[in-house]
Amino acid sequence: RDQSVVAAQFRTYTPPVFTGEEGPLAVGDWIRKMDRIFQMMGISDQHMIACAEFQIEGAAGDWWDDYWRLRTADERDELTWDQLKGILEAKYYPRHFRERMEREFYDLLQGDRSVEEYEREFARKSAFARHLVDTDDKKASRFRNGLTRDLRVLVDSHGYLTYAETVERAQQIEASQLLDTPAQPLAQVAPLARQPAAIQPALPAPPQQAQHRHKRKWKGRDDRKNRQPGAPAQAAPPVPQPPAICATCQRIHRG
To answer: Is CB count within 10 Å lower at the N or C end of the chain?
Structure first.
C-alpha cells in the first residue's frame, strides 16, 4: 500500500502525540491507543513505525531521532512495532515503576468502592501486570477475589462465569442490595429538626417562708408562743427617774 495513502488514513483516526514529559503512565496509554488504530488499519510493521515516528515529539522526539540515527540500515529495516514499543517502555516506563504498579494490582481490593469504580481501577492497573490476567479465566478469578466478601460469596454461587459475566453479575447483586436496604426513618436521621420543642413542666411555687426571707420577724405578743415551758419571764429593764429637787433650797442634792 502506498505510504501517502496510509498516512492520510492514519490521520483520520486523530492519533495521540507522545512527548515523554507526561509521566511513566503516559507511554502505556499512548501505546494502547496506537495499537487500536493500527489494528483497525491492518498495516505492516514498516508502516506502523513510520506512522508512530510522526507522533513522537518534544523531548521524546529528540531522543528517538538520536536512537534512530545510530541504527544501521539493516536494524531499521528489521525493526518491528512490538520492538519499538519495548524500546519506548524501557526508556519511559522504568522497571522499578512497573514493579510498583504490579504490586498495587496484585493487592487491589474493592474496599469501599462501588463495583463500577472497582472494575475501572482493575482495568487500569491490570495493564501493568498482563501476565497475571493473560487469560479470561485468570482475569475473572482475580476480579472476583478482590470483591467484598458478601459480593464474592454471591457471585461464586452462580458457578463458572466469564470476566464480563462476573462484572455484570456483581453489579446486579450490588444494585439489588441497595434496593433491599430499608431507608432510615427520617425522624431518626434528624430528630432535633422534626421534633417540637419539649414543654418544660411548671416548677412548684417556692415556700411562703422563702418569699419573705428578707422581712423582719414580728416579735410582739405572739413571741410568747415560742417561749419554752417553765422558763422564767424576763423582767423589763428599770426606767431611769429624774433626780429629786430639794423642797427647801430648790437644788438637786446628789448622793
So the answer is: C
What 8-state DSSP symbol labels residue 200? Answer: P
Three cell numbers, residue 252: 438637786
Q: Provide long-range contacts, Cβ within 8 A and 24+ apart, for 86-94.
A: 88/18, 88/27, 88/31, 88/60, 89/27, 89/28, 89/31, 91/20, 91/63, 92/20, 92/24, 92/26, 92/27, 92/60, 93/24, 93/27, 93/28, 94/24
**Tens digit of each residue's pLDDT, the chain (255 residues):** 788 999 999 999 999 999 999 888 899 899 999 999 999 999 999 999 999 999 999 999 999 999 999 999 999 999 999 999 999 999 998 888 889 999 999 999 999 999 999 999 999 899 888 889 999 999 999 999 999 999 999 999 999 999 999 999 999 999 998 887 665 554 454 444 445 555 555 555 555 554 445 545 545 444 444 555 555 555 555 666 666 666 666 666 665
The DSSP code for 53 is H
Count other Cβ atoms within 10 Å, centred on residue 108.
20
Task: Mention every residue, 6+ apart, whose C-beta is less than 8 A from residue 161.
Answer: 140, 155, 169
Q: Is the pTM of this model over 0.70?
A: no
